[in-house]
């Protein structure tokens, strides 16, 4: 055997011994203490999750499943639920004109109020984006209504402002416009509710402003060098780059609009009037369940509302590829 071959064999044996020694070191051994420590850490993680799991199942999943069961029953709290199948759903769409009116009013409120809110929030956000002096003050001033807009006190003030001989009525009378109180007028109370929703655009505006801050200024400079005016820059740069934020605000705005309740309840004194024009589906659900004691029927209305919102969210997610543009995405 040659000297070179001998060296190769000896070197290989030494490498094998070193590898065996490394594998037998303490840090590579599967020690029982290490396994116990890992099990304790895993159990600790699940222990921290226990309060959330209790709340999730006890306050969300179980009530949802039970309300689904109640939607197929006749239930008035004082008597056990009685199974009636799909009678609540059939009644809802065939023999309950108040539900149809409530659904129509809710859709008008959602489809008109949400786009106006988004447009107003985007317009103010763009103004604040191009203004440095006093931007913090104006941002806080516009954001403040969203913090208190859903409160009972603001709804009471809104009812007083748009009521008979209120500030809005008196101001319009000075200009020769005599509309009377908006709250008591069936044709004006819904616009007053939409104005209240638009007034609370602060949180949406802040999100839009954060999105505008992330748009590279180089894109605007390149578009301006190509001769694009302000409208073309807005359409070709701002809207595509801001489309993920628009999608987010649109989705949350639609879901929130379907859930309007407190302002309608306060302004109408819980009646849904005048002429049922503030009888949104959430208020109608409340009246059926807690005023009339028809808990089974109210549960069915709640599930119809949930299904409608889920369908709208599904449509938005399915169509976002045609108008939402994400950075780095090739199409």
Task: Outline the fold blueprint.
Layout: H1 3-23, H2 32-70, E1 73-74, E2 82-83, H3 87-94, H4 97-129, H5 135-148, H6 152-161, H7 167-174, H8 189-199, H9 202-213, H10 217-225, H11 230-258, H12 262-267, H13 281-291, H14 295-319
Antiparallel strand pairs: 1-2
Helix pairs in contact: 4-8, 4-9, 4-11, 5-9, 9-11, 10-11, 11-14, 13-14
CATH architecture verdict of the domain at 96-322: Orthogonal Bundle
Helix/strand-derived category reads mainly alpha
Largest sheet properties: 2 strands, antiparallel
Helix proportion range? over 70%
The named CATH superfamily of the domain at 96-322: MetI-like
CATH topology of the domain at 96-322: MetI-like fold
Radius of gyration: 31 Å
Stretches where pLDDT is under 50 for at least 5 consecutive residues are 1-12
């Amino acid at each position: 055997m040659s000297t070179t071959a001998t060296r190769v064999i000896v070197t290989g044996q030494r490498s094998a011994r070193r590898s065996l020694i490394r594998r037998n070191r303490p840090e590579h051994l599967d020690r029982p203490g290490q396994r116990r420590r890992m099990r304790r850490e895993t159990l600790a993680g699940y222990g921290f999750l226990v309060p959330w799991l209790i709340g999730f199942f006890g306050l969300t999943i179980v009530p949802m499943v039970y309300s689904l069961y109640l939607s197929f029953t006749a239930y008035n709290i004082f008597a056990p639920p009685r199974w009636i199948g799909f009678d609540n759903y059939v009644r809802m769409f065939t023999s309950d004109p108040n539900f149809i009116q409530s659904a129509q009013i809710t859709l008008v409120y959602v489809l008109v109020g949400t786009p106006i809110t988004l447009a107003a929030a985007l317009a103010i956000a763009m103004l604040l984006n191009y203004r440095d002096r006093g931007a913090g003050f104006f941002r806080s001033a516009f954001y403040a209504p969203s913090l208190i807009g859903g409160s009972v006190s603001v709804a009471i003030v809104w009812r007083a402002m748009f009521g008979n001989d209120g500030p809005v009525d008196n101001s319009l009378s000075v200009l020769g416009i005599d509309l009377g109180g908006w709250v008591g007028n069936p044709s004006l109370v819904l616009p007053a509710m939409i104005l209240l929703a638009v007034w609370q655009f602060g949180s949406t505006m802040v999100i839009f402003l954060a999105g505008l801050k992330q748009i590279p200024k180089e894109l605007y400079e390149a578009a301006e060098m190509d001769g694009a005016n302000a409208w073309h820059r807005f359409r070709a740069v701002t809207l595509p780059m801001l489309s993920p934020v628009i999608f987010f605000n649109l989705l949350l705005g639609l879901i929130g609009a379907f859930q309007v309740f407190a302002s309608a309840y306060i302004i109408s004194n819980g009646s849904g009037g005048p002429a049922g024009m503030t009888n949104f589906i959430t208020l109608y659900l409340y009246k059926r369940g807690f005023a009339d004691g028809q808990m089974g029927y109210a549960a069915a209305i709640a599930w119809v509302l949930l299904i409608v919102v889920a369908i709208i969210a599904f449509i938005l997610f399915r169509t976002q590829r045609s108008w939402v543009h994400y950075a780095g995405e090739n199409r």
